Amino acid sequence: MRKSFVAVALLAGLLAAPAAARAQTFVTPFAGVTFGNDAPSEQPTFGASLLFMGNVAGFEIDFGYTPDFFGDTDPFDFASGSNVTSLSGNLVLGVGAGPVRPYVTGGVGLLRSRITSASDFFDEVSENDFGFNAGGGLIVMFSDHVGLRGDVRYFRSFEDIDLGDAQIDLADFSFWRAYGGVAFAF
Fold first, then answer.
1. Which phi and psi angles does 54 have, rounded to 5°?
2. Is residue 73 part of a domain?
3. What number of other Cβ atoms are within 10 A of residue 176's Cβ?
4. pLDDT, tens only, 88-112
């Protein structure tokens, strides 16, 4: 009974808070490019971001997908392909109370790379790596609910996580991603 009372009191406090102190939720479908480091060339990428942002700090869930990340090795091999998928949870720190809000972000998550080759009877090599990303961007709102968001991030996988020694070694797989999208605020 006591836990229920505390939960109801917290919920009522959150609902009674002034509007300026409430967090804002942004949903941003995006398109952009991956480049640099292990990306052999600029490749188109797309995805979506769900950002819960307070006055200064927030949390984001970011999903990105880059088809043909490693490029075509054989232009006549139509069954081959490659892609990289990222899914991460990020801390976001931003400033600005008006319609323009610059921010920095960083977090950890999954980096999945896949390569399929028809010349080797549809051999597939896929790798799931734990990794991190860091970057920054800008949100510009044109109204209370619609704006634009741009972002540049660096992604890198971890090679080995040895909790016994508390040592995290960085792997060789890394790339950059730049994107722009329409931000919908709720």
1. -90, -155
2. yes
3. 17
4. 999 999 987 679 999 999 999 999 8
Query: Based on the structure, what is the number of domains in the chain?
Result: 1
Enter the DSSP assignment of 54: -
- Write down the residue that tokens 């999945």 correspond to: 112
d(Cα 38, Cα 129) in Å, to the nearest integer?
15
Beta bridge pairs of residue 135: 105, 153
Q: For residues 128 and 157, give the distance between their C-alpha atoms in angstroms, rounded to a whole number.
A: 9
pTM of the entire structure? 0.76
Residue 170's nearest CA partner among 160, 184, 183 is 160
* Single-letter amino acid code for the residue at 2: R
150: CATH: 2.40.160.20
Tokens representing 177 are 């991603």
CB 125 within 8 A of CB 115: yes
The model's pLDDT over 118-127, given as tens digits with 9 standing for 90+, comes to: 555 455 567 7
Average pLDDT, the chain: 80
3-state secondary structure of 176: strand
Residue 49 lies in a domain: yes
Instruction: List pLDDT tens digits, range 161-185.
Output: 444 554 455 567 889 999 999 999 9
* Rounded Cα distance, 109 and 133, in Å: 8
Range of the domain at 137: 23-185
